[in-house]
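Slide 14.
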Amino acid sequence: MLTVHRPGPAPHRDDLRALCGDRLVEVTGRADAHAALGRLLTTAPFGSHVHTCGPAGLITAVARIARAAHWIDARIHAEAFVPEPGPGAGFRAVLHRSGRSVEVGARETLLDAVHRVGVAAPAMCRRGVCGECVTPVLDGEVEHRDTVLTDDERADRMALCVSRAAGTALGLDL
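Slide 15: predicted structure.
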């Protein structure tokens, strides 16, 4: 197990030390982190998985180093640290398939509003990182707040859990 953190206090460090003992590798600098990752990812047993939780730069670096060590994408996993999305302007969502519409409050997520009017929409992380709630957008402009969609995907889809209308209304395939 590898933990990368800034010098000084670190979240969950004592728990990790207790859990992993001498198997825990701790590093505080970027160069040391890359070197430790290279060692761990080139010596891991066949069939291992790598799980990264942290900022986008760390996730990208781990995936790059793993791929360079011939890891397949199915064994590279990540969970990003993302800030809580703040409130936004209220708007109306027209749910075309179900024939309903809903007013979304400034402090309410579109996902919660959709569920409030009884329309089923999948959800998992509720933070814009997993893609489970991604839904086709039929009308309107989106204020994207997710970290999962590519620029091309953002042309006609949105993550209901964090993204909002950039205007007064959105039409969705729900």
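Speaker note: Residues 2-80 form one domain.
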